[in-house]
Design brief:
The two termini are 33 Å apart. It contains 11 helices and 8 strands. It is elongated. It is an alpha/beta fold. It has 2 domains: 140 residues, no CATH class; 102 residues, Transcription Regulator spoIIAA (2-Layer Sandwich). The chain has an 8-stranded mixed β-sheet with strand order 2-4-1-3-5-6-7-8. Helix 7 runs parallel beside helix 9 and helix 9 runs parallel beside helix 10.
Length: 263
């Protein structure tokens, strides 16, 4: 079971999203112990325009935020529940769990209102104060240029990002992406996903850049899980099989950077 979701932002607000037809699940990503969604952000808009609260989410902080809002919404059955139960409800609503094919999320371009995955965040300020970071903490995010996502989020949501899948077009682009991922200081799980098979990989460049790639992985202080995902290889020639073995050894060295750090 591999959750797979594509999240595309096409304007300057992330308050209104709609589900679109499914996308294919990334090949080979079957080993994740998490029931997280795979979110692919393709940001094509102005950045740094959001303003979010910077406080981390705890029961105490959430309750203190309520006191600062104009309306406590006590008439709502939702807010009559204990805060721990409400947080569980938010997590259930905002976790995008998909089997097989995924769904695509894009911002609605019309003023017509329909139920959406993130609708709970725009109901009232109290719901936003409680749930705004949960979407980012329970789902696995993915973007080729992580700095674009970082620039579009407020401090609280940046801190909430703990799981990320980095698309790997080449060794150089992967190094650049890893350098940008340092911005997410609470990142705990990293998957590096090659989109091209071994036949199309520049093995020599990957081999040359192993020390730099491993150093970037080692520098992520909170990281405890790193995996490199390759598309399923079929119809390989003997030459390709040799290349595949070399690539697996390269991947092993990159992933072992965490062991070197803890050792």
């Amino acid at each position: 079971m591999t959750p797979d979701t594509l999240l595309t932002r096409v304007n300057t607000s992330e308050e209104d999203w709609v589900l679109l037809p499914a996308q294919e699940t990334p090949a080979g990503d079957t080993r994740s112990p998490y029931h997280n969604a795979y979110l692919d952000f393709q940001l094509r808009t102005q950045l740094g325009t959001f303003s979010f609260m910077a406080q981390p989410t705890t029961s105490q902080v959430v309750e203190s935020e309520y006191e600062r809002t104009t309306h406590s919404q006590e008439q709502s059955p939702l807010f009559q529940l204990p805060v721990e139960l409400r947080l569980n409800i938010y997590e259930h609503l905002l976790r995008i769990g998909v089997t097989g094919s995924g769904v695509e999320l894009v911002q609605r371009l019309t003023p017509v209102r329909f139920p959406t995955r993130l609708a709970i965040l725009s109901t009232c300020r109290r719901a936003l104060a409680e749930a705004e970071d949960i979407f980012y903490s329970v789902n696995r995010l993915s973007l080729e240029h992580p700095d674009e996502l970082w620039a579009s989020l407020g401090p609280r949501r940046r801190c909430a990002v703990t799981s990320f899948t980095l698309p790997a077009k080449s060794a150089a682009s992967t190094l650049h992406g890893l350098q940008q991922l340092r911005l997410f200081q609470n990142l705990e799980s990293l998957h590096i996903e090659r989109r091209l098979g071994v036949q199309y990989q520049d093995i020599s460049t990957w081999a040359i850049m192993v020390p730099q790639l491993a150093a970037e992985v080692r520098a992520m202080e909170r990281l405890v899980d790193v995996r490199i995902i390759n598309p399923e290889a079929t119809g390989l020639t003997e030459h390709d099989k040799v290349r595949e073995m070399k690539l697996k050894e390269i991947d092993r060295k990159i992933c072992s950077a965490l062991q070197d750090r803890t050792g």
